[in-house]
User: Fold these one by one.
Assistant:
Number 1:
Amino acid sequence: MIPSPRRTAMLLVGCVVLGVGVALLLAADLGSDGYSTFVNGLTITTGVDFWIVNLVVGVVLVALAALRKVYPGVGTVVQVVLVGVTVSVVLDLLQTPDALGWQAALLAAAFPVLALGIALYLGSHTGAGPAEAAALAWDPPVPFKWSYSVVQGGGALGGWLLGATVGVGTLAVILLLGPAVDLAARLLSLDLHQERDPRAEQPDLA
């Protein structure tokens, strides 16, 4: 089903905002998110290119989420592609600061941007990306703000055991990003849950 113009706009804007947030996080160079840490660890261990490992891990997570009736949609594909493109473009415009204080400022700025982007694109109800789908697959019984922390934390631990590095930014994502997304969604009156029956008609947003 083709999303309505409103939902399409929320998806596109949310993914661009999320991409900017990811770029800020990476430019701070204080540790990436747990999902990327896991992919990086697998890349180090296997020698396979990052983008291939990222694709395989993403497909596996989305498939596992589907077993819990969190089905992929057009937003799943758009999230992966548009966020990746946005990150590449924004990183070309940013440089990692030499001063630790400015790195910390970039890290702090990344969180509200990340939270807003995730809340908007999930609020479009067009399908979740890999990490978010894995978290939503367990909500209920575990609220997204905590299941997302578990997904990010598990990814960081797995990646670290496989040889990837973690930093204060990684810990911040694990502890703070899930609650921040939940807060953004509540402030915007958005429901993060995706349609669990792909045959059901998704009502348009008011």
Number 2:
Amino acid sequence: MALVTPLSPDHDLETRELAEFFNETLGFCPNSVLTMQRRPAISKAFINLNKAVMANEGRVTSALKRMIAWVSSNSTGCRYCQAHAIRAAERYGAEQEQLDNIWEYRTHPAFSEAERAALDFSLAASLVPNAVNADIKKRLYEYWDEGEIVEMLGVISLFGYLNRWNDSMGTDIEDGAVESGDLYLGKHGWESGKHDGSEY
């Protein structure tokens, strides 16, 4: 059971309309948003930020953005966000080999050097203390322009918020996210942990 109980999707009509975005992304409205709407200004601001961050302005694809989100969430240990990110990567057309081998992105041939640079950036930017350095910058600039780097850091920062929110909240994970987590991450020990409704 989560720290705070999610409200009905019909609790705030503006949030409900904005949250239709997640039907494409995940196939359901996340419990995190249903909890945020206890203060509708937060739920609405979060959804609008999410939409802005995930918009494609350059060559950073929707699938890569979700893999960036997965690396960030994996580094912080948020199992809720790991499952959501891998599910969204699947729904946005990530290659099957990438989904199956996301843990080995640094060495697996399914990932390009440009993708590795982006995913290493996600890992370095998500660590505490932060590990972004001159080498990360050099590698990013080999493949990506400044606008694309801003898009990537937008994803990393958005998931920094989500990782804190969902791990602290112990947000109950939805069935669809559990399916994706089990399918792609279970072989490496992923489980729902505190997000299965049994703790708190």
Number 3:
Amino acid sequence: MSTIVGLVLAAGGGRRYGGPKALVRHEDGRLLVERAVATLRDGGCARIVVVLGAESARVRAEAQLGDARLVDNPTWKSGMGSSLRAGLAAMAEDDAADAVAVLLVDTPGIGPDAVARLLAAAEGGPKSLVTATYHGKRGHPVILGRDHWAGVATLATADVGARAYLVAHTDLVQTVPCEDIADDTDLDVPPEQ
């Protein structure tokens, strides 16, 4: 059985939102970063890595993340691509990890059911490339097998994570419809008061 580790990208400064989204309280009272970690854990990832950047010390102080491994991305201002690279680099040290399940901190409409569905579909271990789809459009979570990490890291730049790699290797990507159990809308701006 494959070991798939959860990877939360939570380093952004939330410029349009008005502050780091990792520190935003969701309607359930939890910080978005806490919710993302719980989503991956409850979906079946026994181990979680969280990439931090903006307000890293504050996130560490305020968020209840259990035994999640926290990794700092010193170049977080350059965009999500650098956070994905930082997370994959941290995971490369873990010989037991066959793949990572990537979740963005600002997608609270994705719950454990979507993660579990993707984990169940990822039978290729280190060769896995699995993405959730929403009405035919690719979204999160995304499972990246170890065999693809170097290629993903090479193409992950600015605010482009694994997208360029997935497009270049579309024939290898397994898509898993999730619109019936999740909503991958990201929180770009605060809800109107």
